[in-house]
Each structure stands twice: as C-alpha cells, then as structure tokens.
Design goal:
Blueprint lengths: L1 H51 L4 H8 L4 E5 L5 E6 L4 E5 L5 E6 L14 H8 L5 E7 L4 E12 L2 E7 L8 E6 L9 H8 L1 E2 L9 H10 L1 H10 L11 E4 L8 E6 L2 H4 L5 E9 L2 E11 L12 E4 L7 E4 L2 E5 L4 E3 H7 L1
Antiparallel strand pairs: 1-2, 2-3, 3-4, 4-8, 5-6, 6-7, 7-8, 9-14, 10-11, 11-12, 12-13, 14-15, 15-16, 16-17
C-alpha cells in the first residue's frame, strides 16, 4: 500500500523538487548579477568621475551621449546641469563649459559609501573624519541655516557628504577636483586645468591683510556696528591671495558680506586690492556678486584664467572680467552697450 501511494504521488514530489531547485538557481543567478553590477559601479566610478571633471561639456556629451535631463541647480536655480539617470550623476559646468562639479545620487557607490547614508555609516566604510558645521546667515530673519559636512580626499578628487541633519541623515554627495593634487595627472589631460584656478578664501587667516582692509573701510565698518543690532553688526571678510599679474607678489581678493552692501540677497561685494609701495590699495570693485564662500573657504563661483593681457581674467558666476589695458571690464557691460 505504501509503495502504491509513493508511486502515485512521486510525480508531484518531483515537481515540487524541480520548483525548489529552480528557485534556488534563479535566486543565486540574480544575486550574482546584482553583485557584478554593484562591483562594476564601485570599481570604476570614481576614476570615471575624475576623468569627467577634466572634460568640457562637448567632450562629455561625445562620450556619454545626449540622453541627459536638464535640471536647474545653484542657489537660485539659475544654473542648468545635466543629469544622466543611468549613471546617477549630475554635471555642473563653468561659463567656459568645463565640468566643475559632479553630484552623485544614491545609486552611485563610492568605495562603499552612498548618498542618503548618515555620517556614522559613511565613516564606517571610508574612515573617521571630523564633522564640520557650517552656517549661512539669512539677514531677513536674522537666523542662521545650519548644515553639516564631512569630506575625503580620494585620488585626485575631493568627495563631500553634506546634510542638514547633525547625524548626516539623508546626505548628499558631490565631487570636485582636488586642485592641490591635480598636478599629478598626465600633462595630456592636465593642460586645460592648469590654466584655471579656484582661489580658496579664509575668514580667519591673513591677519595683517585683514587689519589693513579694516583700516581702509574703517568708517563704513564703524557705521555698520552702530546701525545694526549686535547679532549682525560685523562684516564678514573672506580673503584669498592670488598673483594676478605674474609679478611674483600676491594680490588680494576680498569679499564684503553684509546686508549693508547687498540688501537681503545674502551675497557679497568682491573687491581686488594691490600692494603699491608697501601699502594695500583698492585696485577694482567688482560690485555685488552671487558668490557663495563656505566657512572652510572653498567656493565654486569664482575662478582665475590665464590671459594674454598683463592681468589674468576673473570669472565670477556668469560674468567674465577681462583686463582692457587700464582696468577690468565685464563681458555683460558689452552686451548692455550693444
């Protein structure tokens, strides 16, 4: 009787076994496929990003194709960036159409770290880093907007993880070239980048220069202290030293950041100062700019270009300032004149 029952149900038993074995094989194959895709992204993505950061817009499109989505980015949504969904990468460009910044979405694996991870998860795979706290003051409400950031130098890139939460939850990831390391790249791809420099500013260094600027603007600064409440009566002055005329002596780029100069826009006035006979003097005033300088002095809105003129070209946002033989002139002024 038992043998008859076994024969009767044998085909059903075999069918179940086939289904189970098939399911296991399917799961294993699917898992292998997933692992291979992840490893492919993880192994090559950062070196690819570094290469993309050395390209122009046309070179990028030639390699990646035109299957991108145009998105608005920047502080006021005035910058058009290209988002390649299949890569998970968004590219921002300079006015010269060079790639300057790459944002990574949560599908991009950078040595085990991704967007949307919190700082603990990121540091667990990339190593411990100090969590920096930055503030952006909103003059209209006299309140500060706070965000937090950790960064890593990987290869020739700086990788930033930024969040508006102290624990880093829902983090964003963006990558830029590390200008201090880019000299190690081959000359064939580095020649373009050597002609462009993004100055790094400081809100605390260069105390001697800072004192001279305070003396130049002594009356204005004192007036601001008297005019505004104690919480917003100090002018923030980020400073960068750059040799703009190849004379071996650094000129001074200084921002004047206060509602007195720019209203409630939260931007700053940018001035150029030159040392003449040992005394620091104002060379040129670029007026109100949209430049944003982080607390650590980094910025992505102003860069210096080599020029055939005695003074180098300065690009601030979408405005290019070139030396005309006696002073700096904006390309936007020429458009207005026409």
């Amino acid at each position: 009787m038992e043998v008859i029952l076994l024969k009767k149900y044998m085909k059903y038993i075999l069918l179940v076994l086939v289904i189970i074995v098939g399911s296991v094989v399917f799961v294993n194959l699917n898992s292998k496929g997933t692992t291979q895709n992840t490893e492919k992204i993880n192994d090559g993505i950062l070196s690819d990003i570094e290469r993309y950061l050395l390209m122009t817009k046309s070179q990028l499109i030639e390699e990646l194709g035109d299957g991108y989505e145009e998105i608005e980015t920047g502080a006021e949504g005035l910058i058009i960036a290209y988002y390649y969904k299949e890569l998970g990468l968004t590219f921002s460009f300079s006015d010269d159409n060079e790639v300057v910044n790459v944002d990574c979405d949560k599908t991009v694996n950078i040595n085990g770290a991704r967007a949307r991870m919190n700082f603990s998860q990121i540091q667990a795979v990339l190593g411990k880093r100090k969590i920096e706290r930055y503030t952006v003051q909103t003059f209209e409400s006299e309140e500060e907007e706070v965000y937090y950031e950790i960064s890593y130098s990987i290869g020739n890139c700086l990788v930033y993880f930024r969040s508006f939460s102290e624990d880093g939850s829902d983090s964003e990831v963006f990558v830029v070239l590390n200008s201090q390391k880019i000299k190690s790249t081959p000359d064939s791809v580095n020649s373009k980048k050597e002609q462009i420099k993004y100055p790094i500013f400081s809100y605390e260094k260069y105390q001697d220069v800072r004192a001279e600027i305070a003396e130049i603007f002594k009356d204005e600064f004192e007036g601001i202290r008297e005019m505004y409440s104690e919480s917003i009566n100090e002018v923030w002055v980020p400073i960068a030293l750059v040799d703009l005329n190849n004379d071996g002596q650094d000129e001074v780029l200084a921002g004047l950041h206060h509602i007195y100069y720019t209203g409630s826009s939260g931007t700053m006035v940018m001035i150029l100062l030159e040392r003449i006979n040992g005394k620091l003097e104002i060379k040129f005033n670029f007026g109100i700019t949209g430049i944003v300088i982080e607390k650590d002095g980094t910025q992505k809105d102003l860069y210096i270009k080599d020029s055939s003129q005695p003074w180098k070209t300065i690009v601030i946002g979408k405005e290019t300032w070139e030396w005309n033989g006696s002073t700096y002139k904006s390309d936007l002024e020429e458009v207005e004149e026409e």
